[in-house]
Design brief:
The complex is a heterodimer.
Chain A: H1 2-11, H2 14-17, E1 22-26, E2 30-34, E3 36-42, E4 46-51, E5 55-68, E6 72-85
Antiparallel strand pairs in A: 1-2, 2-6, 3-4, 4-5, 5-6
Chain B: H1 2-10, E1 12-19, H2 22-32, E2 36-42, E3 45-51, H3 52-55, H4 59-64, E4 67-75, H5 77-83, H6 88-104, E5 110-114, H7 121-130, H8 144-154, E6 158-166, E7 169-176, E8 190-194, E9 198-207, E10 209-210, E11 217-218, E12 223-226, E13 228-230, E14 239-241, E15 245-261, E16 263-281, E17 284-289, E18 297-309, E19 312-332, H9 335-349, E20 354-365, E21 368-380, E22 382-386
Parallel strand pairs in B: 5-7
Antiparallel strand pairs in B: 1-3, 1-4, 2-3, 6-7, 8-12, 8-22, 9-11, 9-15, 10-12, 13-14, 15-21, 16-17, 16-19, 18-19, 20-21
The chains are: A alpha+beta, B alpha+beta.
Chain lengths: 86, 390
C-alpha cells in the first residue's frame, strides 16, 4: 500500500506534492507569486511574502503590490534581489 | 476602459493608511475578501483606492490592526451627484438637452451641394424640394434614393448623384456631364467676300489670293480674297483651291435711327421700401416684422440668413424680403436724352470698331423726336463664303 502511495506521489508534479508556491518572473520588473498566505513586510524597497513552506523576500526599488488576493500576489517594480527564508 | 467606467459609476475613495501594522491590515482585508487596488507606500504612509461601499466595512479591521485611515479624495458619479444635488436645474437642463438633441436630429437641418460647377444651386435645390428634401424635412419621410432618381430625371446635365444623410445634414454629391468638345470644321475651299460697301484701308491675307488693294472701293458681296491659288514653281503650275483666311479692313458707313416720344411714362423706384422678416426654425416660420408694399409695382428681393456654429448650419435663421416699390411718372423727353440713348447704343454696338467720324441730325415729327446718326467705322468686312467644286 505504502509503495503504491509513493508511486503515485512520484508521478504528481512537484508543486502539488510539496505545497510549494509558484513564482513567475517577467524579467526583473514583475513577479507573480501563487500560493501566498500573507504579506509580512511592505515597503518601497522590500516586500516579504509568506507562503506555506517559506517566506520570500523581494528587494529592489519602487516595489509595489499591484494585485493582492488571498492566494496570489503580483509585485511590480525594479527587483534586484530575491531571498528565501525557511 | 469598461472597468474604469464601472468604478466611476460605483464611486471610489482614495485613502491613506498610517499605523504600526499595515501588513496585518492588508492580510485581514484579503482574508475578508475586500477589494482594493494600487496600494503603494508613499513616505511613512500608504496610499490606496477602494470602492466607496467597501470603505465603510473596513473600520473594524483598521482598529484591530492599529492603523489609521484617512480619505484623501472621493471620486465617482455618486459623489458628483451628491455635490450637485442642490442644483436640480443642471439635471433638468441635461435631460432637456438630450431630448432636444434627439428630436432635432430627426430633421434635415441643411442641404449641402458639392460638385455643381455649371448648374445653378437654386435649380438643384428646387428639384430636391419637389422630392421632399429641404431644410426642415422629417428625415424618415424623405426617400433619398427616390430623390436621387428624381434629380437625375429633372436635370439631364447630371450624370451621377449621391445623397448622404450625415447626422442632420444632407450632403448632395453631384457629377456633371462632360461638355461635348468643340469640333473643328474641316478646311473646305472658300472665298472671302465683303459684308458691306466701303473703301479698303488694310489687307491681311494669310491664305488665298487677294483681289483688292488699299484704297479700292468695294460693294457688298464683292469678292475680296479668292480661293483659287496659282502654282509658283514648275511642279505646281496648275491651279489649287485653298481655305481662304484673312482680314480686310475697310471704312464703312453705318446709319442708325433713334426715336423718342416727347412725353413718356417711365417707371422709377420709390424712395421707400418695405422689409418683411420672419424667424425660421426647421419648417416653421414666425413673422417678426410684418410689412405690406404700398407702391404700384413691387419687386421682392429675398434674403436667407442661417445661424452657423462651428461650421455647422443650424436649423435656425431669418428669412427676410425687401420689397422695393416702383412708381410710374410722366416725363418730358428732350434731345439730350435722345443723344444719350444714341451714345449708349454706340458703346454697345460699335464699341469694338474704330469710329472715324460721326454725325447727328435731329428731326421733330408730331410727338416724336428722331435722331439720325451716321458713323464712318473701320472694321473687318471679310466673310467666308463656301465654294462648291464639281
Amino acid at each position: 500500500m505504502r509503495k503504491n502511495i509513493n508511486k503515485i506521489k512520484s508521478s504528481v508534479p512537484i508543486e502539488f506534492n510539496y505545497n510549494l508556491p509558484i513564482i513567475e518572473f517577467t524579467g526583473n520588473r514583475r513577479a507573480t507569486i501563487e500560493g501566498s498566505t500573507g504579506v509580512l513586510h511592505y515597503s518601497g524597497d522590500m516586500i516579504r511574502i509568506n507562503t506555506r513552506k517559506f517566506a520570500a523576500a523581494f528587494s529592489g526599488r519602487g516595489l509595489t503590490l499591484k494585485c493582492i488576493s488571498p492566494t496570489c500576489v503580483i509585485i511590480e517594480g525594479f527587483i534586484t534581489n530575491v531571498e528565501f527564508i525557511s | 476602459m469598461l472597468v474604469k467606467l464601472i468604478r466611476y459609476i460605483k464611486g471610489y475613495v482614495i485613502f491613506s493608511l498610517t499605523g504600526r501594522y499595515p501588513e496585518r491590515f492588508i492580510n485581514l482585508l484579503n482574508r475578508n475578501g475586500v477589494n482594493y487596488r494600487e496600494l503603494f507606500p508613499k513616505g511613512d504612509k500608504y496610499i490606496g483606492q477602494m470602492a466607496a461601499s467597501d470603505y465603510l466595512k473596513i473600520r473594524k479591521t483598521a482598529r484591530i490592526s492599529s492603523v489609521r485611515l484617512k480619505i484623501e479624495r472621493k471620486a465617482g458619479l455618486p459623489f458628483l451627484i451628491k455635490t450637485y444635488k442642490v442644483r436640480k436645474g443642471i439635471a433638468v437642463g441635461a435631460v432637456l438637452a438630450v431630448i432636444i438633441m434627439s428630436v432635432l436630429s430627426m430633421f434635415v437641418w441643411d442641404v449641402k451641394l458639392n460638385g455643381a460647377e455649371n448648374l445653378s444651386e437654386s435649380s438643384i435645390c428646387a428639384a430636391l424640394e419637389s422630392s421632399g428634401l429641404k431644410p426642415g424635412a422629417f428625415k424618415q419621410s424623405v426617400d433619398f434614393e427616390a430623390a436621387e432618381r428624381q434629380l437625375l430625371l429633372k436635370l439631364p446635365q447630371i450624370r451621377w448623384v449621391s445623397i448622404n444623410a450625415l447626422n442632420s445634414i444632407a450632403e448632395v454629391e453631384i457629377k456633371e456631364k462632360f461638355k461635348k468638345p468643340s469640333v473643328k470644321k474641316g478646311k473646305y475651299p472658300c472665298n472671302l467676300t465683303s459684308s458691306a460697301d466701303g473703301v479698303i484701308t488694310d489687307t491681311l491675307v494669310s491664305a488665298g489670293t487677294c483681289m483688292v488693294k488699299r484704297g479700292t472701293a468695294v460693294s457688298e458681296n464683292q469678292l475680296l480674297v479668292s480661293t483659287v491659288v496659282e502654282g509658283t514653281n514648275e511642279l505646281q503650275d496648275k491651279l489649287s483651291y485653298v481655305h481662304s483666311e484673312g482680314m480686310i479692313y475697310a471704312d464703312v458707313i453705318e446709319k442708325r435711327t433713334f426715336s423718342l416720344n416727347k412725353r413718356s411714362k417711365v417707371i422709377i423706384p420709390d424712395k421707400n421700401y418695405t422689409e418683411k422678416s420672419s424667424l425660421k426654425f426647421l419648417w416653421a416660420e414666425l413673422l417678426i416684422k410684418p410689412g405690406s408694399p404700398g407702391g404700384e409695382l413691387n419687386c421682392p428681393v429675398f434674403h436667407n440668413e442661417r445661424l452657423c456654429f462651428n461650421e455647422v448650419t443650424l436649423p435656425l435663421g431669418i428669412n427676410s424680403i425687401n420689397i422695393y416699390s416702383f412708381k410710374t411718372v410722366n416725363k418730358i423727353n428732350d434731345k439730350i436724352l435722345l443723344k444719350k440713348k444714341a451714345l449708349l447704343s454706340e458703346a454697345f454696338n460699335l464699341g469694338e470698331f474704330k469710329i472715324k467720324r460721326k454725325k447727328y441730325s435731329f428731326k421733330e415729327l408730331n410727338d416724336k423726336i428722331i435722331l439720325n446718326s451716321t458713323y464712318t467705322v473701320n472694321k473687318n468686312i471679310a466673310v467666308k463664303k463656301r465654294v462648291n467644286i464639281e
